[in-house]
Design a protein that fits this description.
The complex is a heterodimer. In chain A, helix 3 packs parallel to helix 4, helix 5 packs parallel to helix 7 and helix 7 crosses helix 8. Chain A has one domain: Aldolase class I (TIM Barrel, Alpha-Beta Barrel), CATH 3.20.20. By secondary structure, chain A is an alpha/beta fold. Helices cover 45% and strands 11% of the residues of chain A. Chain B is of the alpha/beta class. Chain B has a single domain, classed as Aldehyde Dehydrogenase, Chain A, domain 1 (3-Layer(aba) Sandwich), CATH 3.40.605.10. Chain B is built from ten helices and eight strands. Chain B has a five-stranded parallel sheet with strand order 5-4-3-6-7, sandwiched between helices. Chain B has a three-stranded antiparallel sheet with strand order 1-2-8. The chains are: A alpha/beta, B alpha/beta. At the A-B interface, loops of A face helix 1 of B.
Chain lengths: 305, 254
């Protein structure tokens, strides 16, 4: 498709990313030591920022229900009161079940859509799916960017698609998944982030979790810097969601440090920062229990997740 | 002769994480395969005989004869437990007579992650005598070595490295047990503890700290190097403290 189809959008000029510097900076941000009260505060904050996810072919209504229970009360048997997570993230057919389970609570329902994870379908079908999950009651919709179009340089097409998906999502929060594992370079990540933001993404998200590498610190840093520069230009605050491969509390805390350093306190809220993960929650609970009891805890005392 | 690591609370924590990760895979291997691997440990030890003998003489102060004797028994003991791998469940499992129409049987399953304070004496044989019965049934173990010849245990780790034991099944920490015992006892992800030659104080600490998470505790007195070589220092009953019996009631028609 040629650029004449979309005359009002020109691919943005983005600054080039210094790869070595980005890696270096991400490494440095990973060396902060966070202990005791600051750690507890960070861990509790992370729970509220979690998109508790199940995206398996083998998902069943039962599994989604138990996931929702865990999202609402992460540790039912602890005498400690833990916050509920930010959202549960499921496949489109599970949206209604999740909606029912978390009705009347603070937990949002997020659904992947637009032919997750590949996005390999006609635009009309992808838009249709977004409308369907919106109508089924999803508060947040995670759509995938068309990497095929992006990698072949049809940036106007990518922009146009995301714009249509954004319109279709209506009031629901739109998170655009770039699938950075397929984008090869940080420059491409930077460009894709900017296009997604221009097209109306409320959040930009690293990965589907189906491709390795998924979320990494440097990639997230590049995306956060795009968000920062966009904010400085326009005053608009776009959210960030690293997803995939964040399994332990220590790594998650490092992401939090990075958000704080790059974007500041305004982004340290569940409205602007989320982590997509499935097994992270249990590790957060293990560390919180350890801080509380002074003893290393065991997953045996936690529900599966 | 060497600077030896003094394991900290966090080293122990990391070891337990590694052991927990490895345990399920280890337990799900066939008993025969676990036996093969233990057998392989014996072979690897045999192939390093010379080096181990020299070390026992130079570091521990053994005579030549004593060193050879300890090596012989250590190798034999690995093979002996290797042989038990696929016989243990038959001998200790049972079919239980019950009054209802059920086929009722009990089978041993590994307890999980075991921490073991190994003997002070017989730095090679004592360690082997503690490790083999724990891992053969499918447990993962964290060995805590506190004696005058901790380098021996590191050489054993080399033997393990080359004998196909999956990573994390056997973890070796050198350090002071007085510094570690509280954390070992209190760690809720440790399912059982073996303590050889525990002081009265250590016993109390482990019992108190372990009570909260109902950790299985097994205390054994230390033995002299000569005693460790005796046949009564190996027994299938050294495996039983680290298994759980699962009983299944299977309905049958009449």
């Amino acid at each position: 498709m040629s650029s004449t189809d979309e005359p009002d959008y020109r691919p943005p000029q983005v600054p080039t990313v210094d790869e070595v510097a980005a890696n270096e900076r991400a490494d440095r941000l990973a060396t902060r030591s966070i202990k005791t009260e600051a750690k507890v505060q960070g861990l509790r904050m992370l729970i509220t920022m979690l998109d508790l996810t199940t995206l398996e072919g083998a998902d069943t209504p039962g599994k989604v229900r138990s996931l929702c229970q865990k999202a609402l009360t992460p540790a039912p048997h602890s005498d400690q009161d833990y916050p509920s997570v930010g959202a549960v993230c499921v496949y489109p057919p599970m949206v209604e079940i999740a909606r029912e389970q978390v009705a009347g609570t603070d937990v949002n329902v997020a659904s992947v859509a637009s032919y997750f994870p590949s996005g390999q379908a006609a635009l009309e079908e992808r838009v249709e799916e977004v409308k369907r999950v919106r109508d089924a009651g999803a508060d947040e919709i995670d759509v995938v960017m068309n990497r095929n179009a992006f990698l072949s340089g049809r940036y106007e097409r990518v922009h146009e698609e995301i714009r249509e998906l954004a319109v279709a999502s209506g009031d629901a929060h739109l998170k655009v998944i770039l699938e950075t594992g397929e984008l090869e370079t940080y420059d491409a990540v930077r460009l894709a982030s900017q296009i997604a933001i221009d097209a109306g993404a409320d959040f930009i998200k690293t990965s589907t979790g189906k491709i390795k590498p998924a979320a990494t610190m440097p990639v997230t840093l590049v995306m956060l810097e795009t968000i920062r520069d966009h904010y400085l230009d326009t005053g608009q605050k776009v959210g960030m969601k690293p997803a995939g491969g964040i399994r332990d509390a220590k790594t998650a805390l490092r992401y939090l440090v990075m958000v704080k350093e790059v974007l500041g306190d305004d982004w340290l809220t569940a409205d602007r920062f989320r982590i997509g993960a499935s097994s992270l929650l249990n590790d957060l609970l293990l560390q919180l229990e350890k801080e509380r009891q002074g003893r290393y805890h065991s997953k045996r005392y936690l529900s599966l997740g | 002769m060497a600077n030896i690591c003094r394991a900290s609370r966090k080293d122990f924590r990391d070891a337990v994480v590694a052991a927990r990760e490895a345990q399920e895979g280890w337990a799900s291997r066939s008993a025969f395969n676990r036996g093969q691997i233990l057998y392989r440990m014996g072979e690897m030890l045999e192939s390093r005989r010379q080096a181990f003998a020299e070390e026992l003489i130079e570091v521990v102060g053994y005579g030549r004869e004593e060193a050879e004797a300890e090596l012989d028994v250590a190798i034999d003991r690995l093979l002996w437990y290797a042989g038990w791998s696929d016989k243990f469940a038959q001998v200790f499992g049972t079919v239980n007579p019950v009054a209802t129409s059920h086929f009722d049987f009990s089978v041993p399953e590994p307890t999980g992650v075991v921490a073991a304070f190994v003997p002070e004496h017989a730095p090679l044989l004592g360690l082997v005598s503690c490790m083999a019965p724990i891992v053969v049934t499918g447990n993962a173990v964290v060995l805590i070595v506190d004696n005058d010849a901790p380098t021996l245990s590191l050489d054993v780790a080399e033997v393990l490295e080359t004998s196909d034991v999956p990573g994390g099944v056997v973890n070796v920490l050198t350090g002071h047990r007085t510094e570690l015992r509280e954390h070992v006892g209190g760690h809720r992800d440790v399912d059982a503890i073996l303590s050889v030659g525990a002081s009265a104080e250590e016993r109390t600490v482990l019992e108190t700290e372990g009570a909260d998470s109902v950790t299985r505790l097994e205390f054994r007195p230390d033995r002299t190097a000569a005693e460790w070589r005796l046949e009564d220092s190996q027994s299938p009953y050294w495996m039983t403290p680290f298994v759980e019996f699962k009983t299944t009631w299977h309905p049958v028609g009449r």
